[in-house]
């Protein structure tokens, strides 16, 4: 069989790039399927303050660029393609992509997770026209405008704080009566004069003709429904959604064990239930999804993949 890789890494976020670095350094014939973008979620992160060794001006794109450069230097190949089907039953695994078919002795799944949507009318139609899932990408469009941030976890509150650098007012809309974010992050938000809170509330409709012009809010405790319109002078406002993520694991359904949410189940060595198939980063069941844990997962997965190949493909 022609062009059989030692390892094919599906996904090019911190987990996938870390795996590529370690696999390439171990002289494994390595291929990374990049998907839609290199870097995953970190590529759209404005600041990376909690990654050990990161400097004050470190950003997601700069960290990603360094990871890519390292992986390239160690000989990892990269191809922009998206896996549409997989066959993990044989000793040599098969991945069919939109652009090609790939064969490999081992697989590392590092496809990550995608932002979850509100699911209300108008959200899809007005995405990119006032509705956003990335403050870093779109904050500048709302300079001196009002914005609403949906969510109450770490990401939602951190992004709300970031948005105060641009917006004239930020309202955090949370379905409960208290935030789920870490206390230190909550304290920063409560002390920020630009941030207000709308408790026990959800957005049930987003309206506008080509741009967000109003949104309907429902109070889950009182049952009251209120429609808030954009200021006449502004003409619009922003809605930033941070209500969690969904794992990108659909293509592996039926051949890899997952939990109820779709996250891939692994052991501490990143082994899945399929022999020679590993998972790393946000795609797997874990308690902390951060750049540092994704990178660690990727390193472990690559090392374990090398061990697997050494034993499974003895001549």
Give an account of the 3D structure:
With 315 residues, the chain is an alpha/beta fold. Helix content is 22%, strand content 25%. It contains six helices and 17 strands. The protein has helices spanning 14-25, 60-73, 135-138, 154-163, 183-190, 291-312; strands at residues 4-10, 30-33, 77-79, 83-87, 93-97, 101-109, 113-115, 131-132, 146-150, 169-173, 195-198, 201-207, 214-219, 225-229, 238-241, 245-247, 277-279. The longest helix has 22 residues, at 291-312. This is Thioredoxin reductase. Keywords: Disulfide bond, FAD, Flavoprotein, NADP, Oxidoreductase, Redox-active center. GO terms for molecular function: thioredoxin-disulfide reductase (NADPH) activity. Its EC number is 1.8.1.9.
Largest sheet: 7 strands, mixed
Overall structural class, as computed from helix and strand content, comes to: alpha/beta
Dominant shape: elongated
Strand content: 25-35%
CATH first level of the largest domain: which class? Alpha Beta
Helix/strand order: EHEHEEEEEEHEHEHEEEEEEEH
By CATH, the superfamily of the largest domain comes out as FAD/NAD(P)-binding domain
CATH fold-level assignment of the largest domain? FAD/NAD(P)-binding domain
**What's the helix count?**
6
Subunit arrangement of the protein: single chain
For the record, the CATH architecture of the largest domain stands as 3-Layer(bba) Sandwich
Which blocks of ≥5 consecutive residues have pLDDT under 50?
none
Ends apart, CA distance between termini:
16 Å
> Rg to the nearest angstrom?
22 Å
Provide the domain count: 2
Mean pLDDT over all positions: 92
